Amino acid sequence: MKFLVFIEQRDGKVRKASLEALSLARRLAGGPVAAVLAGQGVGGLVKDLGRHGAGVVYVADRAELALYSSQGYVGALDAAARKESPGAVLVAATSMGKDVAPRFAARHDSGVLADVMDLHLEGDRLVGSRPVYSGKARAEVDCGASPIQIATTRPNVFPAEAQEAAEPRVEALEPFEVSPRARVVRVEASETKEIDVAEADVIVSGGRGIKGPENWPMVRDLQEALGAALGASRAVVDAGWIDHQHQVGQTGKVVSPTLYVAAGISGAIQHLAGMGTSKVIVALNKDPEAPIFQVATYGIVGDIFQTVPELAKAVRAAKAE
Amino acid sequence: MNSLVAIAYVPDTESKIKVGPDGSSIDESDVKWIVSPYDEYGLEEALKIRESKGAGTVTVVSVGPERVKTGLRECLARGADDAVWVDTGETKNLDALGVSKALAAVAKAATFDFFWFGQKGVGPDESLVGPMTAELLGLPHVANVVHLDVGEGKVTASREIEGAHEIVECSLPAILTAQKGLNEPRYASLKGIMGAKKKPIAEKKLADLDVPEADPAAAKARWRKLSLPAPRQAVKLIPADDPAAAAKELVRLLREEAKVI
Question: Which of A13, A99, A138, A278 to mutate to test the interface with B (most CBs of B within 10 A)?
Answer without folding.
Answer: A99
